[in-house]
Design a protein that fits this description.
about 40% helix; about 325 residues; 12 helices; alpha/beta
């Protein structure tokens, strides 16, 4: 056992979706054990069922919280902190209040362990928002649960794909509400989060490109009702005054191409689809979701529960593998 390797808590997500399969497929890779000490927070019964779906013979071993720092974490054994919330007869590929509640509890347990420094980072498999709500937890998604349970007010979602990183001013709200929520202070804080995150990762002076809201970033008032001037420019100017290399607002229709080309290090998107669309075009199976601004490290796959292919053993684990790698990269170093 190498105690210098971070312990990464992998939450199982919605047990009726592809989460258990991508976890077990990822843990078939020796690389995971070379870089970290992985532990699944979920249900052993569901992981064993996933074994059948992917035709694997890994051993699933149930552990307790007190054992986390004492295990060998050797390849071939998947350690599961079993919360005993789901049974193997849970219907596959269907929305379930039971699975939604369990997904919340896995994450809540992981957050508690991270706050107590019993694990070094959290990597989350996907949950289903409808199931989450049916299970009694009225959150838009993982990000908001993490913020609430860590009492974090200033946070954002960052997506990472090959040659492109995107951070969001607003996420899981309707487009009309998103425009209402955008304001100079929020824009400034997201620019600052982007700057601080990239600086910590080793980029000394990150170049931060800020999207406009309207086509052509309003084109000096030709489109929209002055949203760029009212809601975005003051936030950009405040960041610039602090020495942050922020640019914009710039037209979103060319900005993502320019960033992939290498002109910028990260894009500040104003709303969900403005940022998510370009990332997913670059590779749905390789994108990673990172919540920045939290007191703990959290990464995630950038895809959903994929109920339509759950239980078939055909889901790709590339995004989960990359999420684990990035959790290790961001985890506190001993």
């Amino acid at each position: 056992m190498d105690i210098n390797k971070p312990i990464v808590g992998i939450t199982m997500g919605d047990g009726a979706g592809v989460g258990p399969e991508i976890i077990m497929k990822s843990l078939r890779n020796q690389e995971v054990y070379d870089i970290c000490r992985p532990v699944v927070i979920g249900d052993s019964s569901i992981l064993n069922r996933a074994q059948q779906f992917i035709h694997s013979d890994l051993k699933v071993e149930t552990i307790t919280e007190d054992q986390l720092g004492e295990l060998s974490y050797s390849y071939g054994t998947v350690y599961c902190l079993d919360l005993h919330l789901l049974n193997e007869d849970l219907p596959v590929g269907k929305v379930s209040a039971e699975a939604g509640h369990a997904a919340f509890e896995y994450l809540a347990k992981a957050i508690d362990l991270a706050k107590k420094q019993k694990i070094d980072a959290i990597c989350t498999a996907p949950l289903n928002k409808e199931a989450l709500h049916k299970g009694g937890h009225q959150y838009p998604g993982h990000t908001e649960i993490l913020a609430d349970l860590t009492n974090t007010k200033d946070f954002s979602m960052m997506l990472s794909a090959p040659n492109l990183k995107v951070i969001h001013v607003t996420t899981h709200v309707g487009i009309i509400d998103a425009v209402k929520m955008i304001n100079p202070e929020r824009v400034y804080h997201v620019i600052k989060l982007a700057h601080d995150t990239l600086t910590k990762s080793g980029i000394e002076h990150p170049r931060i490109a800020v999207c406009g809201i309207n086509p052509h970033a309003g084109e000096n008032g030709l489109f929209g009702y002055g949203e760029e001037e009212e809601k975005i420019i003051p936030g950009v100017e405040k960041a610039k005054a602090e020495g942050i290399h922020a640019f914009g607002p710039l037209p979103a229709d060319t900005l993502f191409f320019r960033t992939v080309r290498g002109d910028f290090d990260i894009v500040v998107a104003m709303y969900h689809d403005q940022g998510h669309g370009p990332v997913k075009v670059l590779g749905l199976d390789a994108g990673v979701n990172i919540t920045v601004g939290l007191p703990i490290i959290r990464t995630s796959v950038d895809h959903g529960t994929a109920f339509d292919i759950a239980g078939k053993g055909i889901v790709e684990e590339k995004s989960m593998m990359e999420a684990i790698r990035q959790a290790v990269e961001l985890a506190p170093k001993n």
